[in-house]
Amino acid sequence: MKTKQDTLAQQIIACQRCPRLLTHCEKVAREKRRMFQDEEYWGRPVPNFGDINAQLLIVGLAPAAHGANRTGRMFTGDQSGLWLYRALYRAGFSNQAMSENRTDGLVLKNAMITAVVHCAPPDNKPSTEEIHNCRDFLKATLAQARAARVMLALGNIAWEALWRELEAEGEVARPRAKFAHGVQVQLKSGRWLVGSYHPSQQNTFTGRLSEGAFDRVFAACRELLKSLAPG
Ligand code: SF4
């Protein structure tokens, strides 16, 4: 039987709202990177990954051109994903550290991953209009992910997008809290919004984000979940 999550995934995959992004995804999929010449790229919008009943909801920016746009799974097939999935594994939110493709056996535990935009943008920079276009999917994801007690924003754009939705829900009020690595904001419902630097190469190669600092964010998420557990 088709679930609401399946329906949302199908809607995301079939979405045609951003011509610039769709053209880019298809072009990248056609031209390919030399090392992936033998692979068939996904080349379309990428759906959410993980359990809709999870208590940890992670919000990234967008699929990477040769990462999720190639493999069809969020954060899979690029350096950012290697960082993220290693950290999730160390924190007990997945069954394995390795992430390669959609059939690698990776299962998230009590975690789900979504993104501000579901199509790979040129230079990893979606326009304001494209972020706006994809807002309905973030809204729908938040509406479905009712068990999410901690929402983790990877980077400032995800922070702003989540804040916008939570403000619309009456969960937070203005002024918007400033994004920072490790920042935590408790929502009116008692749930938590947490910020982390995005594990992009821009941050990991420059040392702005270390594995230790990334691990501490997931350890904090786990502690917050524990503190919210009944009894
Ligand atoms: S970014 Fe979002 S709104 Fe735009 S085409 Fe992709 S899925 Fe649709």
Q: Which helices and strands, and how do they pair?
A:
Layout: H1 4-14, H2 19-31, E1 49-50, E2 56-60, H3 68-71, H4 79-90, E3 111-115, H5 128-133, H6 135-144, E4 150-154, H7 156-168, E5 184-186, E6 192-196, H8 201-204, H9 211-228
Parallel strand pairs: 2-3, 2-4, 4-6
Antiparallel strand pairs: 1-3, 5-6
Helix pairs in contact: 1-6, 4-9
This protein binds iron/sulfur cluster (SF4).
Describe this entry's structure for a reader.
- With 231 residues, the protein is of the alpha/beta class.
- It has one domain: 3-Layer(aba) Sandwich (Uracil-DNA Glycosylase, subunit E).
- 39% of the residues lie in helices and 11% in strands.
- It has a six-stranded mixed beta sheet with strand order 1-3-2-4-6-5, sandwiched between helices.
- The longest helix is centred in the last third of the chain and has 18 residues.
- It is globular.
- Bound molecules: iron/sulfur cluster.
- Iron/sulfur cluster (SF4) binds next to α2 and α5.
Shape: globular
Query: CATH superfamily name?
Result: Uracil-DNA glycosylase-like domain
- Helix count equals 9
CATH architecture: 3-Layer(aba) Sandwich
How many structural domains does the protein architecture include?
1
CATH fold type: Uracil-DNA Glycosylase, subunit E
Mean pLDDT: 97
Element order, helices and strands? HHEEHHEHHEHEEHH
Strand content: 5-15%
Question: How do the strands line up in the largest sheet?
Answer: 1-3-2-4-6-5
Number of strands: 6
